[in-house]
Amino acid sequence: MVSRKPRAEAGRLDKVISEARRSQELRETTYREKALNMFPRICARCGREFSGKKLRELTVHHKDHNHENNPPDGSNWELLCIYCHDMEHQRYLEEDVLHEGNESSSTYKPFACLESLLKDRK
């Protein structure tokens, strides 16, 4: 006999995921529309202008990378074309990788005795 529990749980999970996606799309639509009304329809990085069907290539970038931070004055947004937006996020990821693990400082000091060596030469 096959249990119906996994199917019911899967249905609930699908419903939760669907609602989360709908909520995110609604939130994105809301701040996107606000940003398009507030700012010129120009990419803040490359300066390309967008209108008509090409307007869908203009995206809202969150400067602090927090998509939940949507102040009504738009201070956390900038309009970027899809290419510049991808480049911005790639730069952000690379910056994280570079700074990852750099919390501990090295104890090696290559020029520690340089001053005493220079004093001996005088």
Overall structural domain count: 1
Q: Overall mean pLDDT score? A: 83
| Anisotropy-based shape | elongated
Helix content: 40-55%
**Helix and strand sequence:** HEEHH
Fold blueprint:
Elements: H1 5-38, E1 58-62, E2 77-81, H2 82-99, H3 114-121
Written overview of the protein:
The protein is mainly α and about 120 residues long. The chain has one domain. It has helices spanning about 5-40, 80-100, 115-120; strands at about 60, 75-80. The chain has a two-stranded antiparallel ribbon.
Characteristics:
single chain; 122 residues; mainly alpha; two-stranded antiparallel sheet; 3 helices; 2 strands; elongated
TL;DR of this structure?
The protein is built from three helices and two strands; from the N terminus they run H-E-E-H-H.
